[in-house]
Amino acid sequence: MANLSIYILTLLISPILIAAFSPENPTDRRILVLLDDLSLRSSHSLFFNSLQSRAFLLDFKLADDPSLSLQRYGQYSYDALILFSPSAERFGGSVDLAAILDFADSGHDVIVAADENASDLIRNIAAECGVDFDEDSSSVVIDHISYAVSETEGDHTLIASDDFIKSDVILGSTEIEAPVLFKGIGHSLNPANSLVLKVLSGSSSSYSANPKLKLFNPPTLTGSSISLVSIVQARNNARILVSGSLDLFSDKFFKSSVQKAGSSTRYGKSGNEQFVTELSKWVFHERGHLKAVNVRHNKVGQSEEPAMYRINDELEYSVEIYEWSGTTWEPYVASDVQLQFYMMSPYVLKTMSTDGKGLYHVSMKVPDVYGVFQFKIEYQRLGYTSLSLSKQIPVRPFRHNEYERFITTAFPYYGASFSTMAGFFIFSIVYLYHK
């Protein structure tokens, strides 16, 4: 009976263990979705269905659920977090601002969606990520030129934006042809934070203000400095998406046709679904996640890795780099991977060659300086997780028995030594026997 109980428990736990996040399978699998209202499950079903079709496990809960917890027994229960609760003043259970920041600091990913009802809690989460929403809580993004033509005459708060970031790894290689519908609040990027990037920007004619009031002073956010959707890739490779619109992810916007004001082209379907789907693939590490394996170095002509090198040795260094495609590891091919031979500063900096199958290699000569060096690769490229590889290796000078006995360049010194001895011998004979 005991064996039967253990067997049943194993069957129940196995799917969870298999689906869990691991270095060999870096795609987030267990996602906690916090909602203001459970009706969002149906109004945003296309987005959630696209995640579930890619084998994500979604756990839907109300934002004020008193049982909420990101950790259990010191271990995180989820790989990622989706906050579709812009009006939540506080979360239930043990989830708060500090818990969410710790979640991201631990390398987990977060999607934050806001709207014109965004609470201080949501604004503070975004601010910690380098995203500052308009201080006026009644302001929304308005554009009297690049708005979407709609049945509501004069509704210029429905934006049709096509100012995307130019990055295939973030938005996919297929071009998004139709504009993206956006209705919500704008934000600016903290200039002190170099890790945050605009993914979808406002046009030069957009601004942030209260549409129900007349403007007597210039708005604080104007033009292309307004970001509609932004992303952050932290130094620990955690990824965060901040959107000023919850409707951006809705079924209504996914299915809506779109026509940009001033354009005769009308698209039967907006670019929202493609934009959100491709962006979510990046956020959840289905694209742009790199790993480095099989780091090797040795003297030319040898296969064993030495404990140290001697000055002027010829050596070879190689590493294999792969990119996660969402299901398998594929060879990563690039021409900008560089190796540093480093001590206080790079003594050697060389671009590595690749065979197109993931292997990068380079040959170099150890500099004529002895000390403790490092093989170092610091690879950072837009949209990709950063690689930081380093390994210390001592470099020694020649031993006394490794020099040539007679060095050609030292012949003048040899001559001077022997001529001094000969001169001293002749002087001694002359001095002793001279009468």
- The protein's oligomeric status is single chain
Number of strands: 28
Helix content: 10-25%
| Overall pLDDT metric | 88
Outline the biggest β-sheet.
Answer: 8 strands, mixed
Walk across the major sheet and give the strand order.
2-1-5-6-16-15-13-10
* C-alpha termini separation: 122 Å
> How many whole angstroms does the radius of gyration measure?
32 Å
Strand content: 25-35%
Low-confidence stretches: 1-21
Number of helical segments with 4 or more residues: 9
Helix-strand makeup class: alpha+beta
Shape annotation: elongated
Q: How would you portray this structure in words?
A:
- With 435 residues, the protein is α+β, with helices and mostly antiparallel strands.
- The protein is 21% helix and 32% strand.
- It has an eight-stranded mixed beta sheet, sandwiched between helices.
- Helix 3 packs across helix 8.
- The longest helix is centred in the C-terminal third of the chain and has 23 residues.
- It is elongated.
- The chain starts with a helix and ends with a helix.
